[in-house]
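Priority: medium. Attachment 1 of 2:
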């Protein structure tokens, strides 16, 4: 399987991108990785890392331009046709790669993926679907920022997209789908949430979704469902709150154990548990967020991704490509329509 990786996207490109790609091709997972970007810069990083010749499974596709954060995300991929994002997505569209990973501009990547690789026929909007930690393990949050304003049809499709991802990629049988709301009762929330509830309830009664009803954010974090359906506005707020809380807790726990000699000794006794706790809250362990609804796998890694996050994003791209999720979604499009 061949994964194209944007070597120029992200705060630490191309250094951390290259560092993430090297272990991925050496992990004996049957992967080929194509680093897309300015070849001279990529080779300089490889040489600095002690790599004089490209290892088996690693190649470079030259792209002379880079989409910068100041570029208009809606049009940058058109004006910079030789950018690493545009070239990488064209590789996926043309069958030269099975998936694309980028830590570059979210807006530019989404716009380009929609118009170059294209959405699955019948899908109204692609959605970002990060996997978040919960007390019960993990859950898919869809959408988390791609669509700030949504319709009932969008949210209904997000429920299906998230359910397919949870079942086929995360291997969760009959994933429980919850609609993010300010209360569990059907009457809670604004008009959008109330109308969406009725549609998802009908889908659940028809056996198409395992819809469990409305869910509050606190219950979702406790593990109350496997798929959290939200518009991009509220979903993004939830995601950023979780990330901020995780950072805060990690810092506070570390400070607690570093107070004095006694607490430092206590830290040694629970070192393994603390390490596991930190790992559960580490976004780098997942690596990236898929754009669900796009016809082929496109993974958005965080802009501040270091090597471990890029490596895991590559593995995530492989898992999505192998899952056949796009075919499963396409086969159920008629069930997602809202009359």
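Attachment 2 of 2:
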């Amino acid at each position: 399987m061949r994964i194209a990786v944007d070597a120029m996207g992200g705060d630490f490109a191309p250094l951390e991108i290259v560092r993430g790609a090297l272990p991925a091709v050496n992990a004996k997972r049957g992967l080929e990785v194509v680093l897309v970007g300015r070849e001279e810069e990529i080779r300089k990083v490889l040489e600095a890392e002690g790599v004089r010749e490209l290892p088996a499974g690693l190649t470079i596709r030259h792209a002379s331009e880079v989409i910068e954060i100041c570029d208009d995300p809606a049009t940058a991929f058109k004006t910079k046709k030789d950018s690493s994002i545009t070239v990488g997505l064209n590789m996926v569209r043309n069958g030269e790669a099975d998936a694309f990973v980028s830590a570059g501009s979210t807006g530019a990547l989404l716009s380009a993926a929609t118009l170059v690789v294209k959405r699955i026929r019948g899908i109204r909007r692609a959605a970002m679907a990060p996997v978040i930690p919960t007390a019960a393990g993990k859950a898919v949050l869809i959408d988390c920022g791609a669509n700030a304003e949504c319709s009932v049809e969008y949210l209904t499709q997000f429920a299906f997209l998230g359910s397919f991802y949870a079942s086929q990629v995360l291997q969760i049988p009959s994933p429980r789908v919850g609609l993010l709301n300010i209360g569990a009762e059907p009457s809670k929330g604004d008009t959008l949430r109330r109308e969406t509830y009725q549609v998802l309830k009908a889908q659940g009664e028809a056996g198409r979704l395992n819809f469990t009803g409305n869910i509050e954010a606190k219950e979702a974090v406790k593990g109350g469902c496997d798929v959290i359906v939200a518009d991009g506005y509220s979903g993004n707020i939830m995601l950023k709150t979780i990330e901020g809380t995780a950072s805060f807790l990690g810092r506070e726990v570390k400070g607690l154990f570093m107070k004095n000699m006694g607490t430092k000794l206590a830290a040694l006794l629970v070192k393994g548990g603390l390490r596991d706790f930190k790992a559960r809250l580490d976004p780098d362990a997942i690596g990236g967020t898929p754009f669900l609804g796009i016809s082929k796998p496109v993974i958005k890694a965080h802009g501040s991704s270091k090597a471990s996050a890029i490596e895991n994003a590559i593995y995530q791209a492989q898992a999505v490509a192998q899952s056949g999720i796009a075919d499963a979604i396409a086969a159920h499009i008629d069930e997602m329509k809202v009359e």
